[in-house]
Design brief:
Layout (H helix, E strand, L loop, with lengths): L3 H11 L9 E2 L1 H7 L4 E2 L11 H10 L3 H5 L2 E4 L3 H13 L3 E5 L5 H9 L3 E4 L4 H15 L2 E2 L11
Parallel strand pairs: 3-4, 3-6, 4-5
Antiparallel strand pairs: 1-2
Length: 153
């Protein structure tokens, strides 16, 4: 269960690697909706998305043994980069399985954080099945892309 204490712990942990992204008032969307609308520019994070927050926190909660086995996930982009970046921060190996149709820029950005990229399948589900297969075969720790989405602080 998410408690205030665990939320504050997670918030402090992700501050180690994230930039503060202040809310920006949008007069355009506010006028259009009749509400006060604010945007949170998470595209300003090093990895270009909020996913680094959850990936870093999740990996921080793993045991040394789990991290030492290497990490694996499946993703076509933002989660891939978040896991790759976080794994690099913790000094552990990351393997990312991406669909073969993933844009080259996403593949290259993921590799730039030190991850090994395996291109497999035409859709996410095929890449994910391959990631689970490799996790079982090689003993990698699987980092699920939605296991921490409540931690987008």
């Amino acid at each position: 269960m998410l408690t205030l204490e665990s939320f504050e712990e997670a918030a402090a942990k992700v501050k180690e690697v994230t930039q503060e992204t202040k809310l920006i008032y949008s007069s355009y969307f506010s006028d259009m909706t009749g509400n006060k609308v604010y945007l949170k520019p998470e595209n300003m994070q090093r990895t270009g998305a909020y996913k680094v927050r959850g990936a870093y926190y999740k990996i921080s909660t793993l045991t040394d043994e789990e991290r030492s086995r290497g990490l694996i996930t499946a993703s076509a982009g933002n989660h891939a980069q978040g896991v790759a970046f976080a794994a690099k921060q913790f000094g552990c190996k990351a393997t990312i399985v991406m669909p073969t149709v993933t844009p080259l820029i996403k593949v290259n950005r993921t590799k730039s954080y030190g991850a090994e990229v395996v291109l497999y399948g035409d859709v996410y589900d095929e890449a994910c099945a391959k990631a689970y297969e490799l996790a079982e075969e090689k003993g990698y720790t699987f980092i699920h892309p939605v296991s921490y989405t409540h931690l987008t602080l």
